[in-house]
TrEMBL record:
Protein name per UniProt: Dipeptidyl peptidase 2
Location(s) in or outside the cell: Cytoplasmic vesicle; Lysosome; Secreted
Function: Plays an important role in the degradation of some oligopeptides.
Keywords in alphabetical order: Cytoplasmic vesicle, Glycoprotein, Hydrolase, Lysosome, Protease, Secreted, Serine protease, Signal, Zymogen
Main location: cytoplasm
Biological process according to GO: proteolysis
Similarity annotation: Belongs to the peptidase S28 family.
Signal peptide interval: 1-28
A GO CC term attached to the entry: lysosome
UniProt key word Secreted: yes
InterPro entries in alphabetical order: AB_hydrolase_fold, Peptidase_S28, Ser_carbopepase_S28_SKS
Regions that span the bilayer: none
Amino acid sequence: MSGVSVRMAANGLFLGFMLLIFGGKTETRLSVKEKLNNEAISSHRDLAPDFKEKYFKQILDHFNYNSLGNGTYDQRYLITDQYWKKGNGPIFFYTGNEGDIWEFAQNSGFITELAAVQGALVIFAEHRYYGKSLPFGKDSFNIPAVGLLTVEQALADYAVMITELKKELGAQKCPVIVFGGSYGGMLSVYMRIRYPNIVTGALAASAPILSTAGLGDSRQFFQDVTADFEKFKPACRDAVQGAFQKLNTLAQLKDYRRIQSAFSLCKTPSTPEDIHQLNGFLRNAFTMMAMLDYPYSTHFMGSMPAFPVKVACGTMLNGTDLMSALRDTVGIVYNSTGQLTCYDLYSLYVECADPTGCGLGFNSYAWDYQACTEIEMCFESNNVTDMFPPMTFTEQQREQYCSKRWGVIPRQGWLKTQFWGDDLSTASNIIFSNGDLDPWANGGIRKSLSPSLIAINIPEGAHHLDLRESNPNDPESVVVARKKESEIIAQWVEAAMKESA
Ligand SMILES: *[C@@H]1O[C@H](CO)[C@@H](O)[C@H](O)[C@H]1NC(C)=O
Ligand SMILES: *[C@@H]1O[C@H](CO)[C@@H](O)[C@H](O)[C@H]1NC(C)=O
Ligand SMILES: *[C@@H]1O[C@H](CO)[C@@H](O)[C@H](O)[C@H]1NC(C)=O
Ligand SMILES: *[C@@H]1O[C@H](CO)[C@@H](O)[C@H](O)[C@H]1NC(C)=O
């Protein structure tokens, strides 16, 4: 799920879900407010919180007292009490996912807007092995040091951190609501079902808890990416498919020079592997534009114009040469600065165990490892149910790749066993929000399962749009969704307060 951006690539960052994006920024010491000011976003400046960046002494291995004894690492978190009704208001806790925690704090303004209304303390916790929360520093991705990167360890980190911080801050009585987007939303769901003693409720935005547990159709993801472009204009889908067909014809003729010039590649491709890489690189740009199809320009997992799907189709349908139109269309993602003279295929896109992309840099290693262990993403494109060239990623291919790259064999079905799969009926107090534009949406929960397992669908929403701060260009459907989320969360908090009173 990581985006790859040129900016990030330049930072040598990272991976999968979005990771790339987050790494290695020099500006991480700026507060969100400063960052927002820098980007001249004025509409909600008064609400931009002053997060303090802190570190928590965290247990290295929660599940084995012997191996590392009482060893610890420094886990980063961001905190602001500027809206908090001290000792009484709730705690809003973001369960960090695959990237630098600042990136999520900067792109989840709804949480602080809600905190301002409900008097909440806000904490964004960084996931172990991402950003600056590296348990073994630069050696964290060595084998076997990487072995402490599991969903279970990450959840235990959050449970311990919440418990300790509550004591430290005199917040023992304050109900905790967890928030997360994408894999972070999955973690929010898991926190509520695993630690209901600690967490009162969860807002899981765009959390593909089914598709990543091996449930559902392996064709769904790229089919839904395609649907976004097709819905905008069927001709757009046809043009993309036609461009890939032309590329395929040249590849079969081994006319590598023409491919290089048509796609402005830095190096002449010379093998079927290079063509495979080119196809993956091109497909990934469409994945990013579909996921990040927001109604205003954003800097999340790279820079995107407003309505990137619409911009892409405008470019795709402009002119007569399909291959150069395709080159310019992926430039929306890879060449947003307009500075690239050619595309270096292997540095702009790295193939990994997540066919939707791992991003670049350290964060991408961590996501790749997770995609090789608990998180299952065997998604394929096939040129029939989608507009992309046939690219399989079977369980066998995953096994082969993962044993070579990380010395591990994925355990299919473990995530489903451990975190209940689609059998969630005994859980409670979880909101599953999803946007219809988001190719991850149909890998999540789209229908309410009970009065307290509530699905909220946002017809004009892309990947966790509801977690973003309010914007004048927001569609009505996300405004309605946020209002509903806010009401439900207020009810959970009130009920929990009554119970503990
Ligand atoms: C771990 O526990 C031992 C024995 O109590 C103690 O000597 C040591 O300092 C502890 N190490 C850490 C990292 O806390
Ligand atoms: C996709 O399918 C069409 C129609 O069957 C075919 O003409 C085209 O060559 C295929 N494209 C690729 C990239 O395989
Ligand atoms: C279409 O191409 C023309 C001529 O190259 C250019 O001026 C125009 O901006 C392009 N439109 C879009 C939507 O890309
Ligand atoms: C990147 O964008 C610039 C400005 O539009 C353009 O001149 C250049 O050719 C693009 N690079 C690639 C590799 O397409």
